[in-house]
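Page 37, continued from 36.
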């Protein structure tokens, strides 16, 4: 028997052991992917939901040494197996070649990890490390599902969905991306601590009333959005010129804090300008409209509380997925969309003043936002995964 045949027999023997381990409790779950917070934090939300369901569940992460997970997971107490994964898109042929060359190494590393940990389920959440882990799980015949946060899926999830038993996605996702794999449209999972705050805030906001200021929350994510920081002070000036009752809370990120604050002061506008907002649920509750980008986690949070939105998608997101995310909410009647390339201050002010002066229109948007939001997505995904494993184990 040659070396290759010996290796195949060895792997098949271990796969048989993995199959036998599926019946044991507590569950052992791998969540694979990351690179950015948009991939990682929904994965952490699912991990938290598994632990809420059964504290004995052993959840491990597979990520990359260069992704955000390398810092976040140890800080939050999650065990992880990190791969030397590299991006495949956005850097030309050399970046693609370097990233592709690391995939076989990553697959081999994941197989070794699986043979040691013996997971019953691997959940891919997108990102470069997710591809290697999901391919390795397929080789080891471990059940696989993916969670896709965006309306337009990334390359990794497009490929690995066809190797999976289930896809967990948002409303509006096009099924053709995933072949014949069954889709569950539970939405984007929200982390437990945020979810609990959002549930307390859900539906608590009152309809804007005559004589009270129309409260605008401007959020560019934890790093801020430079475009919004540059444009919104002038926009607020125009809104106040047309409708005196405007109040603003503006989260800028650290880099643009001083510059943005000076722009408001120069215009004699008393805005609450902050680098970061610690309690987003409270900020959502105290706002009548949010002006923000269209990342999947942000949209999951604002629809969980029913907050009408004016969305300015980040135009350089992969596959322009933020624009697709934003238009999904607009079609549902929960948001208005202004693309960055078409930003005109007067036009955006028209939208805000219209909502500020027409409470019934605002109420309809808030109602539609609540209707499409699903703060319980993480628990629903966990319950469905457990049902899937029970069915496969029969």
């Amino acid at each position: 028997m040659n070396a290759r045949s010996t290796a195949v027999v060895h792997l098949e023997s271990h796969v048989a052991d993995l199959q036998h381990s599926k019946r044991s409790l507590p569950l052992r779950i791998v969540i694979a992917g990351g690179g950015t917070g948009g991939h990682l934090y929904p994965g952490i939300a699912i991990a938290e939901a598994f632990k809420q369901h059964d504290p004995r569940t052993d959840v491990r992460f597979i990520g990359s040494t260069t992704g955000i997970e390398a810092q976040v997971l140890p800080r939050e107490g999650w065990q992880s197996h990190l791969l030397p994964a590299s991006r495949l898109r956005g850097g030309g042929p050399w970046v693609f070649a370097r990233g592709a060359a690391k995939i076989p190494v990553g697959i081999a590393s994941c197989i070794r990890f699986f043979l040691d940990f013996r997971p019953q389920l691997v959940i891919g959440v997108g990102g470069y490390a997710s591809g290697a882990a999901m391919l390795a799980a397929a080789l080891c015949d471990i059940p696989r599902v993916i969670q896709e946060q965006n309306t337009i899926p990334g390359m990794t999830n497009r490929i690995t969905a066809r190797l999976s038993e289930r896809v967990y996605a948002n409303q509006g996702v096009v099924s053709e991306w995933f072949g014949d794999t069954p889709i569950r449209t539970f939405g984007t999972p929200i982390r437990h601590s945020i979810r609990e705050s959002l549930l307390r805030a859900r539906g608590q906001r009152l309809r804007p009333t005559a004589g009270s200021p129309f409260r605008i929350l401007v959020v560019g994510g934890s790093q801020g959005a430079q475009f919004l920081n540059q444009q919104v002070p002038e926009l607020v000036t125009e809104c106040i010129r047309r409708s005196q009752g405007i109040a603003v809370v503006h989260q800028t990120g650290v880099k643009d804090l001083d510059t943005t604050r000076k722009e408001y002061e120069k215009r004699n506008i008393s805005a609450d300008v902050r680098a970061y907002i610690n309690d987003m649920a409270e900020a959502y509750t105290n706002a009548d409209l949010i002006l923000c980008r269209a990342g999947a986690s942000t949209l999951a949070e604002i629809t969980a509380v029913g907050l009408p939105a004016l969305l300015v998608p980040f135009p350089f997101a992969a596959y322009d997925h933020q624009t697709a995310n934003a238009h999904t909410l607009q079609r549902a009647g929960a948001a208005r969309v202004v693309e960055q390339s078409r930003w005109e201050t007067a036009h955006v002010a028209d939208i805000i003043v219209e909502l500020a002066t027409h409470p019934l229109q605002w109420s309809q948007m808030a109602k539609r936002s609540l209707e499409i939001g699903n703060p319980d997505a993480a628990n629903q995904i966990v319950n469905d995964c457990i049902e899937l494993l029970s069915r496969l184990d029969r």
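Residues 3-9 have pLDDT under 50 and may be disordered. Flag for discussion at group meeting. The chain has two domains: 3-190+375-392, 195-372.
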